[in-house]
Every structure is written in structure tokens, then in C-alpha cells.
Amino acid sequence: MTNVSEQPGLVTATFSQRMRLRLDDGREVTGRLKGKKLRPVCGDRIEARAIPNEPEWLVTAILPRRNELTRPDKRGQVEVLAANIGLIAAVTSDRPATDWYIVDRYVAAAELMGASAVIVFNKTDLAPASGSSEAELGVFTNIGYTTIRCSAKSGENIDQLRRALHHSTSIIVGQSGVGKSSLINALVEGADQDTARLSQSSGEGRHTTVNSVMWSLEGGGTVIDSPGVRDYAPAIDAAERVAWGFREIAALADECRFANCRHMREPDCAVKEAVASETISHRRYESYRRLFILADDAAQSNRG
Ligand code: GDP
Ligand code: ZN
Questions:
Q1: Inter-helix orientation angle 191-201/180-187, to 10°
Q2: Could you write out the DSSP letters of every residue in 218-262?
Q3: What is the pLDDT of residues 186-202, one digit of tens each?
Q4: 146, 118 contact by CB (below 8 A)
Q5: In the chain, at which end, N or C, are there fewer CB atoms within 10 A of the end residue's CB?
């Protein structure tokens, strides 16, 4: 039997039970799932087929993912937030003040999933970045990341942000209140009305929560929003992998005395020496250490 009815497409929004699909032939349809086995997320390539006499389409398969942005859920399982991501844009601000440890974790997630990362400082219309924020942005510049200082409100450097998001599927992440939705509205005309319309037309009734939405950018690229988080950590299956999330640490690992150095208490550790001489930022190292311990604890509780 041939599956002529199976259509390829892209997940461009997810609600609690349903999703918006953009089929490759250009049609936009609402999709739903058969059982609970499939868990499509924004950015997923899927296959779906029309349901006779129903407006909705049935999602029958998720095509293999290039990568996943993950976090551990409350039960210690891996929750996938988005898939097939080329770039993570971590948004920061001075109001509210930024928790730079969370920024490190998003950047680590990008490294571990093979995506790029940019650090966006928003709300420059209020004041330029404070001395301490400039210092933290400088840490990222020094290790090769692009940093963008912009304002969703005044539009300053929004073009620079748009260029950074060009030709890729990006996801905008960061703490609540830093201006993620405002930046998306500055980048995508009508994004807020689109979200409002989506929550009414999802077929799930009035109080639908829209989990995540993807928009196309003028000039190329797509951008996914993500709900604000109080805390974030990537789901990492082995603590030894954490170092690959911190490029300046991974770059020095060959110079440690032990090939399997964890850069914690080992003697002749090139990473700890670089922290002592301030070649590696103390905060970045502390971020590494905390994430290492978190991943190690998770791995142990999975084993036991
Ligand atoms: P989100 O939680 O990260 O999505 O943040 P929002 O986009 O909802 O913005 C949180 C608050 O910050 C709102 O009151 C926005 O109006 C405000 N805001 C966002 N961007 C800017 C900006 O560039 N400048 C100023 N002054 N306020 C902003
Ligand atoms: Zn070491």
C-alpha cells in the first residue's frame, strides 16, 4: 500500500493537545495526535494525513531530529522544548537583573546540541548596560560569542538582531521579563495578534495555552519563542559531557595532567590554573562546576 495521503510538514506552534502545521505544499492546518507516544515540538519535521470529514490532520510520524533543546522535567525525565535549532539567542537585561548562570546554561545547551549562541542585552533605551553586565558580556565576547545590545522599545540594533537570526531556526530564551516577547514583536510584525488568534483557533476552547510558536522572519530565518523560565538546565546524560558546553574549558582539557580530568579537585589541572590566573572567568568555571554536579547527581539517581 502506498502512503499517498501522508504529507510532510513543519510544526510551527504547539498547544496542550494540538499543533499548527505548515505543510510543505504551503497549507496551514491544525494537527492532532493519535496516542500519546509522539511528542512533536516546534521545529519538528513531521508527516501528517488528513482525517476524512474532519478539519484536523493526524500527525503520524516525527522525522529524525538534527538536535533537541532539552531540560529535565519534574520527574527527572527529559523534556524537549524545541527541535532542529540552529541558534539560541539568550536574552539578558538590567531590569530585571540577569542571572548569568542561566545564560551560561543556555549557551552550554547550544554547544552540546551543535547550535550557535548569541547573547542579547535588551532595554538599552532605559540605560546602557551596567558595568557588571558589560563585564559579563565581555566574557562572552572574549570566548568568541556575538553579543548584541538592543532595545525592543526604541528599535535600536533590532536590525543587527534580525541579521543574526537570518537563515537559521532560532529560539529566543531567557528569564521572564527580559523582553523576549517584545523582541519577537519588534522582529515580526503582528506576532502578538497571531498569538492571540492562535489561542482562539486552536480547537481546544477558550483557555488554551499556547506552548510555543515559530515565526518566519522577513529576509529569511525563523524564530521560536519559549516561555519564560525561572531556572534552566539542559538535560545531560553524563557529567563528563558538561565540559563540552563550555568552550574555553573544553579547549584546555588536553593540557590537564589526567586525560579524564574533571577539572574539580585533580592536581595539575590546566582549567583550574586558568581560573586562578583569570584567563577563564571565575563565574563560567563556577557554572561548569554546578552543572557538572547536577549532571553527576542526575546520572547517579538514574542508576540507583
Ligand atoms: P518576556 O517575559 O521576556 O517575554 O518579557 P516581555 O516582552 O513581556 O517584557 C517584559 C516587560 O519589559 C514589559 O513591561 C515590556 O514592555 C518591557 N520591555 C521589553 N523590552 C523592552 C525594552 O527594550 N525597553 C523597555 N524600556 N522595556 C521593555
Ligand atoms: Zn583539568
A1: 110
A2: TTS-EEEE---BS------S-GGGGGGGSHHHHTTGGGSSSTT--
A3: 999 888 877 777 767 65
A4: yes
A5: N
Least confident of 40-44, 194-198, 214-218, 258-262: 194-198
Residue ranges of E strands in 84-168? 87-92, 116-121, 146-149
Torsion, Cα 288 293 299 304, to 10 degrees, reads: 180
Dihedral sign (CA 65, 70, 97, 136): negative
CA of 297 to the centre of ligand 2 (A): 20
Cβ of 153 closer than 6 Å to ligand 1, yes or no, is: yes
Q: Is 176 touching ligand 1 by the criterion CB < 6 Å?
A: yes
195 touches ligand 1 (CB under 6 Å): no
Reply yes or no on whether the pLDDT at 228 is more than 70.
no
pTM above 0.85, yes or no: yes
> Which helix or strand (DSSP H or E) is residue 140 part of?
helix 131-142
pLDDT of residue 304: 64
Q: How far is the CA of 265 from the centre of ligand 2 (A)?
A: 8
Mean pLDDT of 212-234: 87
CB 164 within 8 A of CB 87: yes
What is the signed CA dihedral for 62, 64, 67, 70, rounded to 10 degrees? 40
Return d(Cα 107, Cα 121) in angstroms, integer.
14
Nearest to 243 by CA among 214, 271, 212: 271
Q: How much of the chain is in helix, strand and coil states, percent to nearest 5?
A: 30, 25, 45
Ligand 1 atom with the smallest distance to the CA of 154 is 23
* Ligand 1 midpoint to CA 117 (Å): 21
